[in-house]
Amino acid sequence: MNQVSQIDVSEEEDGLRLDRWFKRRFPMLTHGRLEKLLRTGQVRVDGARAKANARLATGQVVRVPPLGEDAEKQAPKAVHGPSESDAEYLRSLVIHKDKSVLVLNKPAGLAVQGGTKTERHLDGMLDALTFEAKERPRLVHRLDRDTSGVLILARTAKAAAALARAFKQKDAQKIYWALVVGVPSPRQGTIDLALSKQGGPRAERVFAAEKGDENARDAVTHFSTVSTASWKLAWVAFMPLTGRTHQIRAHAAAIGTPIVGDGKYGGVDAHPGGEIARKLHLHARSIDIAHPDGGRLYVEAGLPPHMKASWQLLGFDERDAKDAFAGLEE
Questions:
Q1: 276-321 residue pLDDT tens
Q2: Active site includes 144?
Q3: Read out DSSP for 139-183?
Q4: Catalytic residue among 8, 19, 127, 144
């Protein structure tokens, strides 16, 4: 493309950020180059200058200057998609499907996105969840590899933008179930403890922030003890009000009740032994979020096998978690 182009924003691109629109249309265009084009006014939306985070609307016209042959090339496609067995397995995880949203019950041990030494991950297999849609679904939030439960996918760019806004505006209530070592005291309350990442991006570990820590980020979590097994173990429901890395795991350890199986934050104390599996006992049980097409979406996910076995062993009844946060002061 050696001349200026005027490209209409399609219905499927409604709500997409301008930089992500370019990433989709011109995947080989670098972010630095795009920022320069925006800064110098060579990219315009409906004739006006725009920023990278501008949200596009159906029917708007994006002015695209000459980008050069390299930037216009399509990104190389993966040689191999998900295997048929992986595709069938992934489809078995779907617990809700409509025209805009998919919800999975993610198993413990499956990474959401790739990273160092992580070749098999959900993001790399999303082509298996296209179904009748024209495009692959998009991740709009994430869960740790060893955390199971509710994971929402957007089936269109418009739905992705709407769900992202809901998360950003805190119009989503997430409930997690965990088995912890010890019993929280008090049994219900709020943990307001800022967290700070240390040790570099690969460390994936957070700590209670110290005063004056420039990297500190506010982190708030409601908790409520649902049931106990003597003094040693407790079933606790957590409701995070913020979404920091490892927030629930760090907060649970901070009040002296580390999550069972979480050696990273609980050390040897996180492994009670006996018939309790050494796997992380943290499950995203439910979510209540604004649906992109209006109304609310509420979905619950069943416990993973290792947690279900622990619940049966300890005599916990899932029905006891109803109204777990009743009486908690907002």
A1: 999 999 999 999 999 999 999 999 999 999 999 999 999 999 999 9
A2: yes
A3: E-S---TT-EEEEEEESSHHHHHHHHHHHHTT-EEEEEEEEEES-
A4: 144
